[in-house]
C-alpha cells in the first residue's frame, strides 16, 4: 500500500492554524492509506508555537520550526520526501486551508487512478483555475458533499497547478528535480514545476470530487517578480494552454451543479460598487479614473444579474441531520456586531452546525478580506426574505429591525423557533427626543422569548425592562489578534477608533482628548480609524488616517504598533475594539459604561475613565505614555484577560 507524507506548512499569516491542524489529523486517522504527518512551522505566534509543542507529543509528529526566509516550493518538496524515503506521495498543505472529512483518501485515489498523474489539487473557493465560489447559503463542507455525492470524478487536466494544497508523485518529481532551477525565484516557483512535469508527459489534474476552503494571503511578497521570471521561460506555452482551457474548461461538470439557477436583473450591488470606486478615486483626486469608473458602472448596470436562491437550492447544499441555524443581519458591512455574528457562524460550522447568514444587502468592498466559511444569502426585500428563507430549526434576529422578520418566519413555519441575539441596548442608539423609536425598539423584545446577551450590563438593562436573558460572553479570535513583531516607533503612538456619524462613539471628546495629549507631548503620533471621511472633519492636529480598515490582519498590526488605545465611547454593548487591542499587547484607556465593564478592571488590565470627560481621557493617556512600569503591567494584565474570551467557547456555549 502506498505511503503518503504530509507536510503541514504553517505560514506567518494564517489565522485558523488549530482548526486546520485538527481537521488534517482527524482525517488522517480515518484514511485507508498509510500516512506520516510532519510540521514545518514558519509562524512567530507564541500561542500557536506553544500549542504545537504540546500536540507533537500527543500525536507523535515531527515539528521543524524555522523563522528564516521562506523556502521555495521545490525545497519544500525535497524536505517533505526526505522525512520518509519510502513515501510514494507527498501532500503539501498550508495552514490557511480547511479540509473536509475524507479529502485525503479521495486525493490519493485520484493519484492511484493513473500513473501519469504527477500533481493534484482539490477544488477550492479561491485559487485561479480551480476556483468555484461557495454557493449562496452553502458552506465549504456542503460544497464538498455536493461534489462528492453528485459527480463521478473525471480528474480533468488543468493548465497549471497551485501550491497551497498539492499532492505530488515522488517518481515524477524525481525526473524533474535535477533540472536547473532559476535562482531568482523567492518563495513559489510552483508554476515552473508544473510546466516541467507536463513537458515530461505527466498530468497536472484537479480532484473534482474534493473541495477545500482556502484563505488567500500575500505570504509571498515577490509574487509579481516570480511571475515575470516564469514568463521569461514559459510564457508562450502557458498562453497556449490557457487559451485552450478557458473556452473548454474541464470543470464544467462541477460548475453545472451550481449554474441551473434562475436569475433576475438587480442593479443594487453594481451601483454600490460603482459608487465606492468613484468615491475612492475622487478622494485620491484621480479624476480620469472617476470618469472611467462611471462609464464602466453604467455598462455594468445592463449586465447586473443575481441568482434567485430558493429554499430547495439551499437544501441541496445542506448537510443532512444537522442543526440548521440562520442568523438574520440588517446588512453586511463593517461593524463590530456584524463581525461578531460572522465569527460565531464560522465557529458553529466547524462544530458541525448548518449555520448561515441572511441579509438584505452586502457591502462587498468593505468585507472582501473577511473570512466566510458559509456564503451569505442576500434576499433584497422583506417579501423575498419571507418567501425564500431557507428551512431552519432556529431563526436568529441580530438587530431590532430583524426581530419582526424572525418572529414572522416562525409563524409561517420557515423556522421551528426564534432567538434574539441582542448585542447592545439599541434603544439608546436614538436620542431621548425620539421616544417613539425607543419604544419601538423595546417592543421587539416581546416578539421572541429566547434572548441572548453578551454582558451583565446588557442583561441588567433588559431585566429592568422585564425580560429574562441568557448571557454568553463575546469571544475573541486569538489566532488573529495577538502581539505582532512590529518595530515600535521611537515616538509615542496613540490609537483610537472614531466614528463621527455615530454620536455614542464620543467623537468630539476623543478628538479633544488627543489634542490635549499632543499639546503636552507634541511628538505623539496619533492613529485614527473607523471612518473614511476623516479628512473632511476639523481635527486640530496631524494624524495617521487609516479610514475604514477592512483587513483585520492590518488592524491587528496597527494595534500592536501603538502604545495606547483609547475607546472614548459613551457606552458599548461589549467593547470589542479595546479587547482586540489588549490581545495585541496594547495598553488601553476605556470608559466605564456598558459591556466593557465585563472585562475592564481599573489598573489591572486598563485605565477606566468616565465618559464625556476629555481632560480625564488625556490625563490617563499621558500617564501611560510617561509611566513605563504601569503600561507594561496593564499590557500583561490585558493579555491574561483575553484568554477568558475565546471565540470557540462562545460557539460551544451558544450550542
CATH architecture of the largest domain: Alpha-Beta Complex
- Strand content is 15-25%
Main beta sheet strand tally, sense and closure: 8 strands, mixed
**CATH class type of the largest domain:** Alpha Beta
Relevant terms:
655 residues; alpha/beta; Spore Coat Polysaccharide Biosynthesis Protein SpsA, Chain A; Rossmann fold; 4 domains; 24 helices
Task: Describe the structure in your own words.
The chain is an alpha/beta fold. It folds into 4 domains: 3-251, Alpha-Beta Complex (Spore Coat Polysaccharide Biosynthesis Protein SpsA, Chain A); 264-306; 319-471, 3-Layer(aba) Sandwich (Rossmann fold); 493-647, Glycogen Phosphorylase B (Rossmann fold), CATH 3.40.50. Helices cover 41% and strands 17% of the residues. The strands form 4 sheets. Strands 3-2-1-4-7-6-8-5 form an 8-stranded mixed β-sheet, sandwiched between helices. The longest helix is centred in the middle third of the chain and has 23 residues, at 223-245.
Amino acid at each position: 500500500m502506498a505511503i503518503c507524507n504530509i507536510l503541514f506548512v504553517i505560514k506567518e499569516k494564517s489565522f485558523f492554524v488549530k482548526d486546520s491542524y485538527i481537521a488534517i489529523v482527524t482525517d488522517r486517522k480515518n484514511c485507508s492509506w498509510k500516512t506520516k504527518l510532519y510540521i514545518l512551522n514558519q509562524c512567530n505566534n507564541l500561542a500557536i508555537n506553544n500549542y504545537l509543542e504540546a500536540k507533537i507529543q500527543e500525536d507523535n509528529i515531527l515539528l521543524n520550526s524555522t523563522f528564516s526566509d521562506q523556502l521555495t516550493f521545490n525545497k519544500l518538496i525535497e524536505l517533505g520526501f526526505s522525512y520518509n524515503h519510502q513515501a510514494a506521495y507527498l501532500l503539501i498543505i498550508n495552514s490557511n486551508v480547511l479540509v473536509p472529512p475524507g479529502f485525503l483518501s479521495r486525493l490519493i485515489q485520484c493519484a492511484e487512478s493513473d500513473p501519469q498523474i504527477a500533481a493534484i489539487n482539490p477544488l477550492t473557493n479561491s485559487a485561479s483555475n480551480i476556483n468555484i465560489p461557495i454557493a449562496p447559503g452553502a458552506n465549504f463542507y456542503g460544497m464538498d458533499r455536493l461534489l462528492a455525492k453528485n459527480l463521478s470524478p473525471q480528474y480533468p487536466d488543468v493548465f497549471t497547478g497551485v501550491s497551497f494544497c498539492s499532492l505530488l508523485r515522488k517518481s515524477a518529481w524525481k525526473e524533474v528535480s535535477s533540472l536547473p532551477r532559476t535562482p531568482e525565484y523567492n518563495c513559489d516557483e510552483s508554476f515552473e514545476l508544473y510546466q516541467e512535469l507536463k513537458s515530461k508527459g505527466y498530468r497536472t489534474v484537479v480532484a473534482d470530487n474534493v473541495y477545500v476552503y482556502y484563505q488567500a494571503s500575500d505570504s509571498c511578497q515577490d509574487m509579481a517578480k516570480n511571475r515575470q521570471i516564469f514568463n521569461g521561460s514559459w510564457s508562450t506555452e502557458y498562453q497556449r494552454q490557457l487559451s485552450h482551457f478557458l473556452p473548454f474548461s474541464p470543470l464544467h461538470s462541477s460548475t453545472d451543479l451550481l449554474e441551473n439557477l434562475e436569475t433576475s436583473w438587480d442593479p443594487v450591488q453594481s451601483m454600490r460598487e460603482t459608487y465606492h470606486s468613484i468615491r475612492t478615486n475622487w478622494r485620491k483626486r484621480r479624476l480620469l479614473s472617476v470618469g472611467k469608473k462611471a462609464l464602466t458602472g453604467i455598462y455594468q448596470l445592463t449586465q447586473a444579474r443575481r441568482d434567485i436562491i430558493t429554499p430547495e437550492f439551499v437544501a441541496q447544499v445542506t448537510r443532512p441531520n444537522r442543526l440548521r441555524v440562520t442568523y438574520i443581519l440588517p446588512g453586511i458591512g463593517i461593524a463590530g456586531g456584524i463581525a461578531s455574528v460572522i465569527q460565531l457562524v464560522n465557529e458553529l460550522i466547524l462544530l458541525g452546525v448548518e449555520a448561515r447568514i441572511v441579509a438584505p444587502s452586502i457591502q462587498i468592498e468593505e468585507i472582501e478580506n473577511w473570512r466566510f466559511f458559509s456564503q451569505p444569502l442576500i434576499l433584497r426585500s422583506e417579501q423575498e426574505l419571507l418567501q425564500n428563507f431557507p428551512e431552519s430549526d432556529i431563526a436568529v434576529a441580530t438587530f431590532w429591525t430583524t426581530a419582526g422578520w424572525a418572529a414572522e418566519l416562525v409563524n409561517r413555519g420557515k423556522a421551528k423557533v426564534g432567538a434574539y441575539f441582542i448585542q447592545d441596548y439599541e434603544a439608546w442608539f436614538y436620542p431621548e427626543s425620539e421616544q417613539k423609536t425607543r419604544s419601538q425598539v423595546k417592543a421587539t423584545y416581546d416578539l421572541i422569548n429566547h434572548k441572548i446577551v453578551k454582558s451583565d450590563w446588557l442583561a441588567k438593562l433588559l431585566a429592568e425592562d422585564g425580560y429574562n436573558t441568557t448571557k454568553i460572553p463575546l469571544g475573541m479570535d486569538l489566532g488573529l489578534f495577538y502581539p505582532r513583531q512590529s518595530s515600535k516607533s521611537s515616538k509615542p503612538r496613540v490609537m483610537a477608533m472614531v466614528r463621527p456619524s455615530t454620536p455614542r462613539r464620543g467623537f468630539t471628546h476623543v478628538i479633544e482628548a488627543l489634542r490635549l495629549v499632543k499639546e503636552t507631548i507634541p511628538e505623539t503620533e496619533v492613529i485614527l480609524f473607523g471612518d473614511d471621511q476623516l479628512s473632511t472633519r476639523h481635527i486640530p492636529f496631524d494624524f495617521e488616517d487609516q479610514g475604514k480598515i477592512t483587513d483585520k490582519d492590518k488592524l491587528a498590526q496597527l494595534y500592536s504598533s501603538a502604545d495606547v488605545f483609547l475607546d472614548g465611547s459613551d457606552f458599548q454593548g461589549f467593547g470589542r475594539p479595546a479587547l482586540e487591542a489588549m490581545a495585541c499587547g496594547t495598553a488601553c484607556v476605556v470608559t466605564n459604561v456598558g459591556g466593557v465593564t465585563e472585562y475592564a478592571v481599573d489598573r489591572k488590565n486598563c485605565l477606566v475613565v468616565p465618559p464625556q470627560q476629555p481632560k480625564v481621557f488625556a490625563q490617563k493617556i499621558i500617564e501611560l505614555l510617561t509611566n513605563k512600569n504601569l503600561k507594561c503591567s496593564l499590557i500583561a494584565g490585558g493579555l491574561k484577560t483575553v484568554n477568558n474570551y475565546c471565540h470557540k467557547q462562545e460557539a460551544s456555549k451558544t450550542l
